[in-house]
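User: Structure please.
Assistant: Input sequence and predicted structure:
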Amino acid sequence: MNVNLLVDIGNSRLKSAVCAQGADNVQPFTPFAWRDSTRPTPDIIDEFDSVLDELWSGIVPSRIIVCNVAGESMLERLSVWCTNHRWPPIEECASEKQFRGLLNGYANPAQLGTDRWVAMIGARACYTGALCVIDSGTATTVDLVSAEGRHLGGAIFPGVNTMRKALDKYTAGLFDATGDVHPFSDATVAGIAGGTGYAAAGAIDRFIDEARLRLPELTVVFTGGEASLVAPLLRNQVTVNESLVLQGLTAYAN
């Protein structure tokens, strides 16, 4: 059976899946945190080849479709790995003016983040009607799409972990914020965990409210590495789909 390998290289994690050619049901692999805030980046990069050897063992894809926002060096590293395994050349997605009725809302379509574009493609492949697409990771992005497929613009702000790293950079070592998120805490570390978690949730809830002022009937689709952390804190109802970019790559490949 011919399969496509779908690869989403984000700012912090590499996510991947396989999908039979012409099908739309992805089979995801375990994400790989290629940038880990608790360890030096060079150490993580040194593990890149061995992790991929284990992750994709036994697979011989017919095509390799990639969404990359991590810079050219990561793409080149993946390309070398594929060449060494005698796999097909990488096919990199790019933001375009339109795709199957989805119209890019940017004046310069190429400037829209590829991950946002592919996430919107995935959302339209999975859901009908107007959409608010939220991707919560290193950065949190919000994009609004009308039922007719017109991208009405979006917003970008720091993810929860990025907010915590900013505190670590500009204060006296307050980054080690882990554990459950509560609105009010009796310790500094827990207070940072709660403050950053609720800050993200509050911003997302406000964007959803603003989206519904423009498009009252819409589906809110929530994806990204921090979706499971933030979604339970929201007042608005959302649909969590952690494979949204990979599903967008499937639609792109088909």
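The longest strand covers residues 13-20.
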